Amino acid sequence: MTKGGSESKASRQGGAGGQSQSQRQRQRQRLARLVLQRPASGKSTKELSANLRSLGRHLGKHCPHFGKKGVVQLAAPQLASAALEGAEEIGPPKFNKYAGWVEWKNTVFLWVNAVGGSFDNNFRANGREVNWYVGGANPSDSSPIVKRLLTLSSSRAAKPGFEVCLFVRARATEPYVFCGRCNYRGHNGQRKGYEFNWRLSDYPKLVKCPAFRELLALQKPAAAAAVAIAVGDAVAVRGVFAGGVLMQWVVTLDGSSNSELRKLSSSNRYFLS
User: Which of 24, 43, 221, 236 fits a 20 to 30 Å CA distance from 251?
Assistant: First the structure.
């Protein structure tokens, strides 16, 4: 009687808290795996629908989580709640971090570097339009992502709820800015990297956001002025700046060029190294 009573009391104590000690321990382990992203046991993003409503709160802002993986996790907030609910198989969604896009069931995320990167991505029409490159090894009309984007873009009305979303960062060391939804404007498969052109559907809201305006400022002609610098008597240096960052230079010395410049700590002049 006493033994049975104590077991019953322990059961009631576990029930009163809603969880037993072992259940709480398993929950902590699952949450630890989620936070540390070990192991990568989640499903592929192709099998999941991104939470676009939640993502909408970050329109025109820097994403609070860094990098592509951070954005992907931001779009899948159900992971944390699933862990709390006791799901055994839980982990960040899987995706190809080397690609310039991420495919979901209901959307495709496009990644863009405003400055630097393998391709020249430029805002046009005062920021209403932007180009994006597929990249990778010899993309063509038969590439899966190209086929999907062209098919979905040409039949958007037949697929309600599907969106193409753009994420742009100033540089690789900075977080992405969510630039909202994109509408297809055209493509050029003859351009290296296979170029797409998009129009930003949320431009009227974006243009009011400081983070988005900073991206546009990086590409303004005035911010990308060419600066000529004389180094000694024999070397002519022409540096091209964007947003205060030296993007490229042309150094002429007896018909040759040198790609290494170092900035003097005491001035804005550069010298050969």
Answer: 221
- Cβ atoms of 160 and 106 within 8 Å: the answer is no
Q: What is the pLDDT of residue 197?
A: 96
Inter-residue contact 148 to 103 (CB < 8 Å): yes
Q: Is 42 helix (H, G, I), strand (E, B) or coil?
A: coil
Please say if the pLDDT value at position 169 is more than 90.
yes
Q: What is the pTM of this model?
A: 0.66
Q: Cβ contacts of residue 141 below 8 Å, gap of 6+?
A: 147, 150, 189
Closest alpha carbon to 114 in 247, 200, 219 = 219
As a whole number of angstroms, the distance between CA 194 and CA 149 comes to 12
Strand ranges (E), 60-176:
101-103, 107-113, 123-124, 129-133, 163-169
Q: Based on the number of CB atoms within 10 Å of its own CB, is 178 exposed (0-12), middle (13-18) or buried (19 or more)? A: buried
Kindly report the number of other CB atoms within 10 A of residue 4's CB atom: 8
| Mean of pLDDT values over 157-172 | 83
> Who's near 46: CB < 8 A, 6+ residues apart?
103, 104, 105
Distance of CA 183 to CAs 43, 154, 155, Å?
Answer: 28, 10, 12
Strand-pairing partners, residue 62, are: 177
The string of pLDDT tens digits covering residues 77-125 is: 565 455 444 444 457 889 999 999 999 999 999 999 988 777 888 999 9
- Judge whether 65 and 71 are in contact, CB under 8 Å: yes
d(CA 188, CA 197) in angstroms, rounded, equals: 8
**Tokens read off for 234:** 């024999």
Q: Exposed, middle or buried, 207 (CB in 10 Å: 0-12/13-18/19+)?
A: middle
* Nearest of 182, 178, 123, 191 to residue 152 by alpha carbon: 182
